[in-house]
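Feature request, filed as a ticket because there's no other form

It would be nice if the structure record came with a short human-readable summary line next to the tokens. Right now we just get the raw output. Example of a typical job, pasted below so the devs can see what we mean:
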Amino acid sequence: MTEPTLYAPKPRADRTWTIRLQPSGTVIPAAPGHTVLQAALATGLALPSACRNGTCRACLSRLLAGEIRYVIEWPGVSAEEKAEGYFLPCVACPQTDIVMETVST
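Raw output as currently delivered:
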């Protein structure tokens, strides 16, 4: 797997990507243009969430591998958190297959 990238250079909504959740190993598909949270909900998997607009941080997770693109300009994650791989699934679309760990409670 490649190192995680929090911003892809261009939106890539041309195919379905897979999302692998750690540590469970659960794999779900992400349809083109769907956020990680929308993909999870579409399969019946309830990830932590509240606002669904990138401000409350209830869905804060860590990207372990792959690339995402945010659908908003400034999500509620600090520069330090971004550098450590944290992201918000409610406003992040996969741009490749991704591996993630849900870290919020």
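Something like this underneath would help us a lot:
The beta strands are 17-22, 27-30, 61-65, 68-70, 86-87, 92-94, 98-102.
The first strand starts at residue 17 and ends at 22.
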